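In this supplementary section we document a worked example of the pipeline. Step one takes a protein sequence of length 161 as its only input; no multiple sequence alignment statistics are reported here. Step two produces a three-dimensional model, which step three serialises into structure tokens for compact storage. The input and output of this example are shown verbatim.
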Amino acid sequence: MFERFQVFFHNLTADRPKNSFAPDDPRIAVAALCMQVMEADGQIKDSEKKRLRKLLKEQYGLDRKQLDALIAAGQEAESSAVDYYRFTSDLKRHLNSEQRVELIGILWDIVYADGERSEMEDDAIWRIAELLGISARERIQKRQEAARRVTDVTVVQDDAD
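The serialised model returned by step three reads:
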């Protein structure tokens, strides 16, 4: 009987590529929310895509194939979602409060990747933060930190010229 269970579980995963993510993997929800924020202002810039890749790679220690698979899974989930709740409710179960605040920081980093912040991006992060149970103070603090990082990078680049 034990062998039947082994065969059953093996068959469940045998045809799944090693770089795929389970549908309930919270990393997919994170990637999908990042994409929704990127799309909030109606345009996705290369700088935002690069920032997303860098942040996900650093956050989760992924190699290139795993990163590509995560982004593809996030895009697929995002394209079928009708609102933020699908992702935020899942993340509230998987992330502690510190991790949820950090996620808001990641979202702000993506917003500022192109050097601009739009009203639509503000609104998207405000709604996501509310659903994640993040206070306005924490959300604004993370926004200010992301804006400061962009300013610091700009100053360093200007000094190098």
